[in-house]
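Inputs:
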Amino acid sequence: MSRSAVTDSRPQSQQVKGSGSLLRWRLTRLIGPSVLLGPAGLWLLLLLVVPVLLILRISLVPGLRPEQAITNYGLDNYLQILQPTYLRVLLRSVTFASGTTALCLVVGFPVAYWLALIAPKRWRNLLLVVFILPLWTSSLLRTYAWITLLRTSGVINLVLSSLGLPEQNLMNTTGAVLVGMTYSFLPYMVLILYASLEKLDLRLLEAAADLGASPNVAFWKVTVPQTLPGIAAGGLLVFVTSLGDFVVPTLLGGPSSMTISRLIYNQFLGVSRNWGFGSALSIVLISAVSIAIALLLKYGDRNPDGFS
Amino acid sequence: MFQTASSTHAPAQEQAISDVELRQVSKIFDGEVAVRGVDLSIRPGEFFSILGPSGCGKTTTLRLISGFEVPSAGDVLIQGQNVKRTPAYRRPVNTVFQSYALFNHMTVWDNVAFGLKIQGCNRQHLQKRVKEALQRVKMETFAQRYPTQLSGGQQQRVALARALVNRPAVMLLDEPLGALDLKLRKQMQIELSTLHRALGITFVLVTHDQEEALSLSNRIAVMRDGYIEQIGSPSEIYERPNTAFVANFIGDTNLLSGQVEALGESMRVKTASGLQISVDSNQMQLPNRYQATSVSVRPEKIHLSSQRRPGVDNCFEGRVKHMMYLGTHVHCVVELTTGDCLTVLQSNQPQHRPDAQMPVYVSWSAEDCRALAA
Amino acid sequence: MPRRSSFRPNSSRRLFLQGSAAAIAGVALSNCRGGVSDVQSGSQAADSSSPTSSGSGTLNIYTWADYTDDELIQQFTDATGIEVSVDVYDSNETMLAKLQAGGGDTYSVIYPSDYMVTQMVELGLLTKLDQSQLSGLETMQEKWKNPVYDENNTHSVPFVWGTTGLIYNSAALSEAPEDWDYLWNNKDKLSRRITLLEDVRETLGAVLKSLGYSYNSTDPAELEAAYQKLLELKPALASFKSFGWQDELLGGDVLVSMVYSVEGVPVSQEDTDFKYVIPSSGSSVWTDTMVIPAAAPNAEAAYQWINFNLQPEVAASMAERLYLASPNEAVLDLLPEAILSDPSLFPSEELLARCEGIAPLGEVSALYDEYWTKVTSA
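Outputs:
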């Protein structure tokens, strides 16, 4: 075998000599793009692909603890996720995240619309900064502030009772979690929608009006479809980040507030230190988010050339 | 099909009232006056152009008609109805925008169907009309494309179809051909003209291209600084401009400033440089002696000769300073002995082609020049 | 098992919220900012210097928030010429994960809790201490001379200790809680006015204790029984919270909270309406220690730091400041009588005997986690 390899290599090397310039040209063509894409590619490889592959590997080791050596592989960790307890956790996480996304959209769109299209131009940047300002404080502080507002003896109930209205049980509920998460992620939604609405071609609204569309019709037929990429991007960002949040559910939620991110945290940093199961949960989360992004890229943009 | 459009507006036509009327309309933006007391009356079925340099208020005037701007003063009437307080979406007009403003999230078909869908047109009828409109602009094969997949000219056709499918009382065209290259523009001008004849509805075109306005319009309004300087047919505007601005803006002209010297049969204007120019009384806008004036002479009306031409009203000596060969024409700049420079356009006849630095005589008749308010 | 939050709000905020029910969120925000940003800036400073400064003069410490402060570090630097940089963690497990993920050669001194010491010794992560280089251990109380978690203090030096218990609003409760069973007996009255720790070992441990079992039970049947008993209490729970319970307790919305003494006692010190009690059937008692990781750089400086902290004056001022008990007799001698006689800090020998340290569980820990997930996701 080694002999044949030697004999094989000879004509090859001759051929290489003979067509040196062609080879060099081929090499340049091959290496050229990779030199250009190299840094970004390396970055992605080291910071995204390699870690995910490592997590994937760990997720295939049943109940792996960090100090254990990897001895056998299996799907046990994934099968464990299918237990009702964990499916409930997944369902709750998705409910929290989609509720937050919907609320952010409902509250954020009018705000972004006002900022981008109605507010006086010279105040726009200032208003935007004011609106984004909460992002500069820790999300934990903002959540603490909500405790002050929502608790039974809190500000909201104080206002209610001073108006003669009955006291509401707001704290430690799913509603409180949704309010807190919406508040946390609203600035992201507003920023993205603002960017999208600011680019909105107002002449299209004039065109719609010209064709007989009342402002209401023009909004649904032109403004919303035109800002659909922004709505999708903002929705995805809020959905993904709220799926990863466990501070708000822990602080504002009731005794049944386990979310997938908290569960993952518990597997890595909690009592059981079950890195195998934690990795499997992470892979499920990463896959779900990746699929959502892929769907957005594929179907979120119906126009093949992209919106200009 | 589209004839029904004009038939629905037939009563208006029969009463011979104007399709669009502006009465003393002004528009002020943040203290800047864009339109000053404009009076306009556009007849049914007319191809009317608003022509002027950028910033003259022509687009604002169009937007006052379409309803995108509310007049600061005055009234806007469409088919006899005062629409001053009517929002754009309730006005019986459709616009073809300079930027086309196509909905890029919809196919060509959906763009064209947009207006009809809003009107609640039934499906069958809608399909028929959209198809017809697309055929009219030769875009039926592109129905399922998105606007971003079309060239500028194709987008222009779609924009036209999207407006005309609604059979508006008035079609408003805001520099619709501005973004097209010269050849395509010429072609589209012909198509616009054909469309106008076929549809029989009123077209209001805003343009800064005088040639476009001259070739397409029944009447033209020339605007400057928010005023209308002159309204008239293309030949009126060109042949009998009211002001130096109009004379200069519509085509090329030579303007010689001076004073009215004599009135009556042989009207004469004397320039500061000492030229004595005879002007036909029909062409004299100024009834008073000693009034400052500008005499406008079109380059193509000036005759070049090597000898003084006897019996011609105006004949002056000079010499060719520059000469440009333009193929069908020769373009010369002649410096008169008085120091005035005149541009002359002569048809290209090889035997009469003047040479640079050659002493020449320029001449034109009294009917071929016009004395205008300075 | 997150034990003490690094986001612990400072006392000024607590008093403020207590005093004005109509506290505006914005003011509350600015008020609590100090406490949190202190911690953050501390860790940031440490982050920026820790990876590179493991060399000659700098000592890298990985500890609980508040266990060191600028003044203490300054004193140490003045005395020894060694610069100190500090990273903080909020749970033993976080610390362990960081060490196992390759941070072992960064830090010279770490402050694991008792059961974590055992675990780290088993994992071979700790240096066997050179006793000849340590001073001040002679005055250690008998109990801490040979603790269960680390025989003869071979790998660790006991630093401070505390308990887990209940803090309650004595003005609002007619009957004071004395034992864990109080919660079950009054669950209707206290509906949605109880918080328990969001800490599986503590909360399940307390339920096990209330059933007469060990805090560290490894018997699946006992665990199942504890799980069922916890479910019974669940309708009465406002939530599971390890931090952030203060607002609701001080506002009167929550009447009883299960807390760590290090966080509960300061609240009771500031407002006497709130009392911290160690349940009579026993609770957990925890010891935080100082250790030197096996791969620690600059071990000599680490010994200097440990000895510095063992000085009675230094340890006493720390105990007083943080409301922590000291295992060192020489330190106790320096503490005022008021603190020494406080049963929430220094419970009776008899009660202390019924308390247990949290012990490593081995394989059973997975069962704990499973029950915990069941409880919190039902």
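Remarks. The CA atoms of residues 3 and 170 of chain B lie 14 Å apart. The radius of gyration of chain B is 25 Å.
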